[in-house]
């Protein structure tokens, strides 16, 4: 669900919008972990979650087309699915998660094939792009995330994953000159500020405990 939602979200709305929604992942994972595993959520994380929500509301207020709204909805579905996956990795530590990640890729492919256009006639460049995406993003990225998530609290694993959020719109701007809207910049600043503050706060608290 996460991967199938991610690709069309990028096609329907800007990369900056998707990146900001993706940055809310640690707080979604923390909420799901509290509901499912009863993992404690600190007051700092709760406050950061409120700031993230404000940032998302600002972005939603700047959406002008049905395409943007649909893309943002798919991005939210992606975050909810990956947050649930992160918590499940913590809950079922003894399950062979690499095999589970492999099955998820096959299932995602099976669901996506009916929506693929001209899949029977890709060019050599298309095949190269498909192979790079499958190996780097889906294969290597998901496998390493699955292995690492077993060793970390759900919120911390998601925080590490959010490092891609500021880089996503940067690479798209560099390649395609896609400039984020003012709403995306303001909302994104709030979201990333909340994420960074929470990371620093957790690090300081753990250092003091040691």
Please give the structural blueprint:
Layout: H1 2-12, H2 15-23, H3 25-37, H4 43-61, H5 66-91, H6 97-112, H7 124-149, H8 154-161, H9 164-176, H10 182-209
Helix pairs in contact: 1-5, 2-4, 2-5, 2-9, 2-10, 3-5, 3-8, 4-10, 6-7
Descriptive notes:
This protein has helices at residues 2-12, 15-23, 25-37, 43-61, 66-91, 97-112, 124-149, 154-161, 164-176, 182-209. It is mostly helical and 210 residues long. The protein has one domain (2-93, 150-209). The longest helix is centred in the C-terminal third of the chain and has 28 residues, at 182-209.
Give descriptors for this structure.
about 210 residues, mainly alpha, 10 helices, globular
In short:
The chain is mostly helical.
Number of domains: 1
Residue fraction in strands: under 5%
The pLDDT mean sits at: 80
What's the order of the H and E elements?
HHHHHHHHHH
- Number of helix segments? 10
> What is the structural class?
mainly alpha
Rg, alpha carbons: 18 Å
């Amino acid at each position: 669900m996460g991967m199938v939602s991610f690709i069309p979200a990028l096609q329907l709305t800007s990369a900056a919008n998707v990146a900001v929604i993706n940055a809310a992942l640690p707080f979604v994972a923390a909420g799901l972990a509290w509901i499912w595993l009863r993992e404690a959520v600190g007051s700092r994380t709760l406050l950061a979650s409120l700031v993230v929500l404000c940032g998302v509301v600002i972005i939603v207020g700047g959406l002008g087309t049905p395409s943007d709204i649909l893309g943002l909805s798919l991005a939210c579905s992606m975050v909810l699915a990956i947050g649930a996956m992160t918590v499940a990795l913590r809950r079922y530590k003894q399950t062979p998660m690499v095999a589970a990640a492999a099955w998820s890729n096959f299932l995602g492919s099976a669901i996506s094939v009916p929506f693929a256009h001209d899949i029977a006639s890709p060019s050599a460049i298309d095949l190269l792009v498909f192979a790079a995406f499958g190996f780097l993003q889906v294969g290597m990225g998901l496998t390493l995330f699955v292995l690492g998530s077993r060793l970390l609290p759900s919120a911390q694993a998601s925080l590490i994953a959010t490092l891609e959020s500021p880089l996503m719109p940067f690479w798209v701007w560099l390649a395609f000159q896609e400039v984020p809207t003012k709403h995306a910049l303001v909302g994104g600043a709030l979201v990333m500020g909340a994420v960074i503050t929470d990371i620093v706060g957790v690090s300081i608290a753990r250092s003091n405990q040691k």
